[in-house]
Design a protein that fits this description.
The chain is an alpha/beta fold and 221 residues long. It has two domains: 119 residues, Response regulator (Rossmann fold, 3-Layer(aba) Sandwich), CATH 3.40.50; 94 residues, Winged helix-like DNA-binding domain superfamily/Winged helix DNA-binding domain (Arc Repressor Mutant, subunit A, Orthogonal Bundle). It contains eight helices and 13 strands. The strands form four sheets. The chain has a five-stranded parallel beta sheet, sandwiched between helices. Strands 8-9-10-11 form a four-stranded antiparallel beta sheet, with no helix packed on it. A two-stranded antiparallel ribbon has the order 4-5. A hairpin with a 2-residue loop joins strand 8 and strand 9. The protein is globular, with a radius of gyration of 18 Å.
């Protein structure tokens, strides 16, 4: 998954990023509202973690801009404000959830998973596709009852394709979704990851189809 983290406390931002990157997530970090808006207008994200008190204003400015642009990216607010009225106003503006500072990183991760499950419409933990089973919480893929050991990028690529079955992804779009903006990555890396996934999915109900000149699509028999 690719997250946008909007947080001006760099120590906290580094701690959150490091924790999420362990699970293979890609993190873009902005410490100002204007930078966050520039990121969100340029790239597509699976989730936004949004601080409210920022150097150039109130994070709710970003929240309103994002929703006014008709973007449905889940947003979890990170706030030191504990008053009920503050939380209600953020939810009314379009926040999907909030975490009050200070918070436990395990709780934040759990809330991220819960919000992403609601977004995808999957309340169940395990996803079954013939002889392929995927556990999005544990990040575990099983093929014919055998656990497949995927590298982090491969896992996130599979998760991305799986959550948008039937949708075509160009190589450039996959690069944008799997890597942070400051990583210098060739589109050839996507071909390598696609090739590895195809080997794992051989003779299963899931197929990665190449559409020449367009990109890749995950199909389900």
């Amino acid at each position: 998954m690719k997250y946008l983290l909007v947080e001006d406390n760099h120590e906290l931002a580094n701690a959150i990023s490091s924790r999420l990157q362990i699970d293979g997530h890609v993190i873009d970090h902005a410490d100002k509202i204007l930078d966050a808006i520039a990121f969100s207008d340029t790239f597509e994200y699976d989730l936004v973690l949004l601080d409210i008190m920022l150097p150039d204003g109130d994070g709710r400015t970003f929240l309103k801009h994002h929703r006014d642009a008709q973007k449905d990216t889940p947003i979890i607010v990170l706030t030191a404000r504990s008053q009920v009225s503050d939380r209600i106003s953020m939810l009314d503006l379009g926040a999907d959830d909030y975490v009050t500072k200070p918070f436990d990183h395990a709780e934040l991760e759990a809330r991220c998973r819960a919000v992403l499950r609601r977004k995808s419409g999957t309340a169940q933990t395990l996803l079954h596709f013939g002889d392929v089973t995927f556990d999005p919480v544990a990040g575990q893929l099983s093929v014919k009852n055998e656990i497949v050991n995927l590298r982090n990028r491969e896992l996130r690529l599979f998760e991305l394709l799986l959550n948008a079955r039937g949708q075509i992804f160009s190589k450039q779009k996959l690069v944008d979704r799997l890597f942070s903006y400051d990583e210098d990555v060739s589109e050839n890396a996507i071909e390598v990851y696609i090739g590895r996934l195809r080997k794992h999915l051989e003779n299963t109900a899931l197929t990665i189809t190449t559409l020449r000149g367009l990109g890749y699509r995950l199909d389900h028999d």
